[in-house]
Design goal:
By secondary structure, this protein is mainly α. It contains eight helices and four strands; from the N terminus they run ααααααβββαβα. The relative contact order is 0.12. The chain crosses the membrane at residues 12-30, 36-57, 78-100, 112-130, 199-223.
Length: 224
């Protein structure tokens, strides 16, 4: 019953535990002859994609009222989980460097197309995870750093055009626009907390996208 309530309230812990458990299961099923970089990326992808699937499934089903309720009831340790996932997403990109290094030394035991596929899946999964986690943090900050003005308007640090009651898709839109352009679009940041979070997101996005371009060139070079 408690576990059901945690899932129902959009608590990140069950999703994280499920993803870690699935990743551990995958690690036990991998053949022993795989090199360490390949094993790390396989384990990371299995956990990351399950976490994304569970998170997006819940986010896309949430209307504005559920979004508000989920964000306000979110587990207090969500910030720690947020930082952990962002760090892991960035670290996974570094693992691709070791994979490519092993490739150039001729130490890998899997075909080149599979190496490219694994690297591409890691890049896409890490990119999606980075901006999904920021979207969750924007929603959490919006509803936990707000106040009423004359009991009429909720001010949560983000001003969505013609929308006073956003849902998770609105926060995903804001997050992924920053992720693709490293800047905001038509959504205004109106609180210091949100500006700081947006600044961090923009800087991370710039370096993350730069690394992705470099990685993509190396992956293409591996095919030549």
């Amino acid at each position: 019953m408690v576990k059901y309530q945690l899932f129902k309230n959009f608590d990140p812990r069950p999703r994280l535990i499920s993803a870690v458990g699935f990743a551990v299961l995958v690690s036990l099923l991998l053949p022993p002859w795989l090199r360490l970089p390949t094993r790390i990326l396989c384990i990371w992808n299995s956990g990351a994609y399950l976490f994304l699937a569970l998170t997006w499934w819940k986010m896309l089903k949430a209307n504005p009222e559920k979004t508000r309720r989920y964000a306000r009831r979110e587990y207090e340790g969500s910030l720690a989980i947020f930082m952990l996932m962002i760090t892991a997403a960035c670290a996974s990109i570094l693992a691709i460097t070791f994979l490519l290094n092993y490739h150039h030394k001729g130490l890998l035991t899997i075909p080149v197309p599979l190496r490219v596929l694994l690297s591409a899946m890691t890049i896409i999964g890490s990119w999606l995870l980075l901006h999904t986690m920021f979207a969750l943090q924007y929603a959490r900050g919006y509803y936990q750093h707000n106040h009423d003005i004359n009991n009429e308007e909720i001010v949560g640090g983000l001003g969505f055009p013609n929308e006073k009651d956003p849902d998770y898709c609105d926060f995903l839109y804001f997050s992924f626009v920053i992720g693709m352009t490293s800047q905001v679009s038509d959504v205004q940041t109106t609180l210091r907390y949100m500006r700081r979070l947006t600044l961090l997101h923009g800087v991370l996005s710039f370096f993350f996208n730069t690394i992705i371009v470099a990685m993509s060139i190396n992956i293409i070079a591996a095919l030549i």
